[in-house]
Amino acid sequence: MKAPTIVFDLDGTLVDTAPDLVASLNHTIAAASLAPVGYDDLTHLVGQGARAMIARAFALRGEPLAEEEIQPLLDRFIAHYMAEMPGKSRPYPGLIDALDRLTEAGFILAVCTNKMEALAVPLVEKLGLGRHFSAIAGGDTFAVRKPDPGHIIATIEKAGGDPRHAVMIGDSVNDILAARNAGIPSIVVPFGYSDVPIAELGADRQIDHFDELTPVMLRQMMRP
Ligand SMILES: O=C(O)COP(=O)(O)O
Ligand SMILES: [Mg+2]
């Protein structure tokens, strides 16, 4: 039997990226003289990658974008985000120890994020987390992305794991829905960017700190 796989969401789960997402988004929308957004707006804007975040910010400011207007703004966002990376973004408390613990216990670890792969991979690398992950799949890595269950399943397969022996950990509705639709147990964390109360997401478990993420707990959550 293959080793069990633990799949992590990135923004708001592994790494607190909010300050840099807000900074790069505000740099982007300033090109159109739009008023800056704040952290409270971010929970409604983030979740489907940078392109959607920019489009949502313009809509929030009452200036909806035509499809063909988005690309130059996306280029502006990417240039700013890459230049600052990793900026103020940091792994959440206890994460590094948890990754060490799970790696030591033989779990396969993977990242499944709706962030573009070209932003997700260098961010994970620059924070020194890359060596833990057998696969890092972005929102544009496959033909589908969260909440489509195919995103999680393809990530697990890319990591060399088996979707029948996996757990998904995330902060938002996309993560928990995708896991449920894939038949994969899920854990929600409260420190991310959910725009609805996380108790309503219907995850199988909640952890409030990565210290709670132990091999014993994860094995108990998986199907026999
Ligand atoms: O960047 C986004 O919009 C979402 O990223 P996440 O899937 O890692 O939360
Ligand atoms: Mg997230």
UniProtKB/TrEMBL annotation:
It comes from the Bacteria. Specifically catalyzes the dephosphorylation of 2-phosphoglycolate. Is involved in the dissimilation of the intracellular 2-phosphoglycolate formed during the DNA repair of 3'-phosphoglycolate ends, a major class of DNA lesions induced by oxidative stress. Its EC number is 3.1.3.18. This is Phosphoglycolate phosphatase. InterPro entries: HAD-like_hydrolase_sf, HAD-like_sf, HAD-SF_hydro_IA, HAD_2, HAD_sf, PGP-like_dom2, PGPase_prok. Keywords: Carbohydrate metabolism, Hydrolase, Magnesium, Metal-binding. Pathway: Organic acid metabolism; glycolate biosynthesis; glycolate from 2-phosphoglycolate: step 1/1. It catalyses: 2-phosphoglycolate + H2O = glycolate + phosphate. GO terms for cellular component: cytosol. Coiled coil: none annotated. Belongs to the HAD-like hydrolase superfamily. CbbY/CbbZ/Gph/YieH family.
